[in-house]
Write a structure and sequence with these properties.
single chain; alpha/beta; UDP-N-acetylmuramoyl-L-alanine:D-glutamate ligase; 9 helices; 11 strands; binds 3-hydroxy-5-(hydroxymethyl)-2-methylisonicotinaldehyde
Length: 276
C-alpha cells in the first residue's frame, strides 16, 4: 500500500487540516501517517480557540521514523503555525523526500487576508517550502502573499500565468492555483508544469457560497489522486469535482454548518470518480 505523511494541525472541531486529510486519503486507499503540529479546539475562524503547540514533538517523531527506516510515497504539508515548524518541515523533506512526492498547500490566507495569528512576514517563510516541491497548490490569495504581489479580485489569464510562473521560479516543479474564475458562474483550478511548461485549466460550476475547509479537502483529494498515479491535471480535476460534490451535499442539508462541508457523505462519489 502507498504511504504518505501529512504534516499539519488538528483542529479538534471544524473539518479542516488533519481531520479531513486523514479520512479522505485513507478512503482513497492510501495509508496516511500524520505529524500533528498543534491541537486547536477549533480552526481559527471561530473565536476563542485554544492552541497547544506540538512543535517540540515534530523532531522526535522524525528521529523515530528514521530509526525505523520508514519511507513515504508523498509528504503533504498544510497549515503550519510558526517559522520553526517550517524549518522542521524542511528537515522532513530532506530526510524522507527521496522517492516521495512533496506537495505543499500553503494554507494561511483567503479572500485577500492572512488567517488570524499570522504575521505579515510569515508568507515569506512559507515560500521557502516551494524549493523542490513537486506541487504547490495555493489559492489566489496565498499565491499573492507567497510572491509579495498585491491581491486582486479582477484579473486575466496573463496575471494568473504570472503567478504560476512566479511559483515555479521559487523552485516548485508544478504550480496550481485554486479558486480561479475568468467567467461568471465558473470556478476552477489552473496549473503550469515546470518540465514542459504545459498549462491546464479545469472549471466547475461556481456555487455562490464559501465554506471553510474546502481548500484542505481539495488538497487531500488531489494528494490521494496523485499518489494513486494520476497526472497533476487529472488529480486537480478530480479534486475539484469532489469538492463541488461536498458543497452540493452541504447545501442540500437543512441547517448545514457554516464551518465545514459535508465531505463524509461525498466519499462514495469520490471513490466512484476515482474509477473514471
Ligand atoms: O483550513 C485551513 C486551516 C487549517 N488549520 C487551522 C486554520 C485554518 C484556517 O483558518 O485556522 C488551525
Amino acid at each position: 500500500m502507498k504511504r504518505i505523511a501529512s504534516i499539519q494541525d488538528i483542529s479538534a472541531l471544524g473539518k479542516c487540516s488533519l481531520t479531513v486529510a486523514l479520512p479522505i486519503i485513507s478512503a482513497m486507499g492510501v495509508e496516511c501517517a500524520v505529524v500533528p503540529t498543534a491541537v486547536l479546539s477549533t480552526h481559527t475562524q471561530f473565536k476563542g480557540w485554544t492552541f497547544c503547540d506540538l512543535t517540540d514533538e515534530m523532531e522526535p517523531i522524525a528521529d523515530h521514523w528514521k530509526q525505523e527506516g520508514f519511507t513515504f510515497d508523498a509528504l503533504y504539508t498544510g497549515y503550519l503555525g510558526s517559522f520553526r515548524q517550517v524549518d522542521i518541515v524542511k528537515r522532513y523533506f530532506r530526510d524522507f523526500g527521496a522517492g516521495a512526492k512533496i506537495i505543499v498547500d500553503p494554507a494561511m490566507a483567503d479572500n485577500g487576508k492572512l488567517y488570524a495569528g499570522f504575521t505579515p512576514d510569515f508568507p515569506g517563510k512559507m515560500a521557502e517550502l516551494l524549493d523542490g516541491a513537486d506541487l504547490v497548490l495555493p489559492n489566489l490569495t496565498e499565491a499573492c502573499f507567497l510572491l509579495g504581489k498585491e491581491y486582486r479580485e479582477d484579473y486575466d489569464r496573463a496575471f494568473i500565468l504570472e503567478l504560476l510562473e512566479g511559483l515555479l521560479d521559487r523552485g516548485a516543479k508544478n504550480a496550481a492555483l485554486t479558486g480561479v474564475s475568468f467567467e461568471k458562474g465558473k470556478l476552477g483550478v489552473v496549473s503550469l508544469s515546470g518540465d514542459d511548461h504545459a498549462y491546464s485549466e479545469y472549471f466547475t460550476e461556481h456555487l455562490p457560497v464559501s465554506f471553510h475547509g474546502t481548500g484542505d479537502i481539495y488538497s487531500s483529494a488531489a494528494v490521494g489522486a496523485l499518489v494513486a498515479g494520476r497526472t497533476v491535471p487529472d488529480a486537480l480535476a478530480l479534486a475539484a469535482d469532489y469538492t463541488v460534490e461536498c458543497i452540493r451535499l452541504t447545501l442540500a442539508e437543512e441547517n448545514h454548518s457554516w464551518y465545514g462541508v459535508n465531505f463524509e457523505q461525498a466519499i462514495p462519489y469520490l471513490l466512484e470518480r476515482m474509477k473514471r
